[in-house]
């Protein structure tokens, strides 16, 4: 195996998304009163490997080794934009012809890669072996490799494995798979442990710090975040652990934590003034905090956010918007745009609709908004052209062609890479949607 230092280009994948039956695990369930258009066909998505782009920044002592092909390496390098002299904390162990032909033992080669990495980077305390399409096609068992390597390098370094393969995952599901792997190593909280809160989903450090200060002011604690900034900072989880989701795409992680006895708090997602208030209020209610105290703590931030949103509302009110499926953030973002900025969501597409987790957000969408799960990209393009929305939120591969047709687009990937949660980021979130329309206005002759 050759190692390519790596830190996206768009990956177009032909596949199918089956119409999912109702399930009780938080996936593919929507409120009965709202129909969902479920499509199977060609999709335009990033694969789950791309979650490494933000995860390696968040978990500051971890290193991600993609076990894949040169295509995987090029995908990551082109997106992350790592400079020639940078030392990123992820790379690709390239499966070569000699590995495929059996001339070299892939497991021995992988052991050598990890040994060289840890000799060079003693600051690394956790290594993630990330499966790809090539590694899964040749049936390379990375879970067993992780166990073997952990036994060799513990207690200094923990080695874990998860799949980022585009065969199995899309874009943000890479984070879900990574966090699920971390859950397996979380210590067990005793049954008599005091109630604790676990905020689930990777957040920029500045947002995490803001949230922590607000929880402290509310009197909620102890509070932990998953993923934490250090791979070893894994809180104990048990029957008295309460889960508060910051991201809507973590169904497998939630299921793994619930299997350990944790309980999810049902709440809006913390986008905008309304969503952030409701998110904190749901946590406060779970921990028995007096409503008057909650209002005293939250009112200043909520009022600042509402004032900061006014300029964007004047620009966006009445404008129509169409979401292509990308990150699974689409439903709560559509709720924010509709209720706080006065936009009209025509269609809200999402790769997978976690209806149980999104029930409160879905209930606040306009009745005329179409929800779609999965994708048949040609049919969705036809619906988009027929609707002629003022703004289209889509992946990079669709943006330029749609711009050429006269539509105004917003790159969906920016919504994952940018700090958008919480009161202080509400205006920045609104600006991500307002700027493309402002640009279009400036370009008009």
CATH topology of the largest domain: Rossmann fold
Strand order of the largest sheet: 3-15-14-13-16-17
Strand residues, percent: 15-25%
Structural class: alpha/beta
**Average pLDDT value?**
88
Task: Just name the CATH architecture of the largest domain.
Answer: 3-Layer(aba) Sandwich
Describe what you observe in this structure:
The protein has 445 residues and is of the alpha/beta class. It has 2 domains: 2-9 and 47-169, Nitrogenase molybdenum iron protein domain (Rossmann fold); 31-45 and 189-445, Nitrogenase molybdenum iron protein domain (Rossmann fold), CATH 3.40.50.1980. It contains 17 helices and 17 strands. Helix 9 links the parallel strand 11 (241-245) and strand 12 (263-264). Helix 7 (173-183) runs parallel beside helix 9 and helix 10 runs antiparallel to helix 11 (291-316). The longest helix has 26 residues, at 291-316. It is globular and about 60 Å long. It starts with a strand and ends with a helix.
How is this structure best summarized?
The protein is α/β, with parallel strands linked by helices. The chain has helices at residues 52-58, 70-80, 97-100, 106-120, 133-137, 142-153, 173-183, 205-218, 251-259, 272-286, 291-316, 330-341, 355-363, 377-387, 396-404, 414-417, 426-443; strands at 2-5, 12-14, 36-39, 42-44, 62-68, 90-94, 126-131, 158-163, 196-200, 223-226, 241-245, 263-264, 320-323, 344-350, 370-374, 391-394, 409-411.
């Amino acid at each position: 195996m050759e190692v390519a230092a790596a830190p996206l280009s768009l990956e177009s994948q032909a596949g199918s998304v089956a119409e999912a039956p109702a399930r009780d695990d938080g996936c593919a369930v929507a409120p009965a009163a709202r129909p969902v258009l479920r499509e199977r066909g060609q999709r335009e998505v990033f694969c789950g490997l791309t979650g490494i782009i933000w995860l390696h920044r968040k978990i500051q002592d971890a290193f991600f080794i993609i076990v894949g092909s040169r295509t995987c390496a090029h995908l990551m390098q082109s997106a992350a934009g790592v400079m020639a002299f940078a030392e990123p904390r992820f790379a690709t162990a390239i499966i070569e012809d000699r590995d495929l032909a059996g001339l070299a033992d892939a497991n021995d080669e992988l052991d050598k890669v990890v040994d060289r990495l840890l000799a060079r980077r003693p600051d690394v305390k956790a290594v993630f072996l990330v499966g790809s399409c090539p590694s899964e096609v040749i049936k390379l068992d990375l879970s067993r490799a992780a166990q073997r390597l952990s036994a060799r390098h513990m207690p200094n370094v923990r080695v874990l494995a998860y799949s980022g393969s585009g065969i199995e995952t899309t874009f943000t599901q890479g984070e879900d798979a990574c966090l699920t792997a971390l859950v397996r190593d979380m210590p067990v909280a005793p049954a008599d442990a005091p109630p604790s809160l676990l905020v689930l989903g990777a957040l920029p450090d500045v947002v995490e710090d803001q949230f922590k200060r607000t929880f402290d002011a509310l009197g909620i604690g102890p509070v932990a975040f998953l993923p934490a900034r250090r791979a070893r900072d894994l809180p104990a989880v048990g029957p008295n652990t309460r889960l508060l989701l910051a991201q809507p795409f973590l169904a497998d992680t939630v299921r793994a934590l619930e299997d350990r006895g944790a309980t999810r708090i049902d709440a809006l997602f913390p986008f905008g003034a309304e969503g952030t208030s409701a998110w904190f209020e749901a946590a406060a209610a779970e921990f028995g905090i007096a409503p008057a105290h909650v209002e005293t703590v939250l009112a200043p931030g909520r009022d600042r956010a509402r004032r900061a949103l006014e300029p964007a509302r004047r620009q966006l009110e009445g404008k129509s918007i169409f979401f292509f499926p990308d990150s699974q953030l689409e439903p709560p973002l559509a709720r924010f745009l509709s209720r706080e900025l006065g936009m009209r969501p025509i269609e809200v597409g999402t790769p997978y609709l976690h209806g149980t987790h999104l029930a409160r957000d879905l209930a606040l969408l306009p009745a005329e908004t179409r929800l779609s799960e999965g994708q048949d990209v040609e049919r969705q393009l036809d619906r988009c052209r027929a609707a002629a929305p003022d703004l289209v939120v889509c992946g990079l591969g669709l943006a330029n062609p749609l711009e050429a047709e006269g539509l105004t687009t917003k790159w969906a990937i920016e919504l994952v890479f940018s700090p958008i949660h919480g009161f202080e980021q509400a205006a920045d979130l609104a600006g991500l949607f307002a700027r493309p329309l402002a640009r279009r206005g400036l370009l008009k002759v």
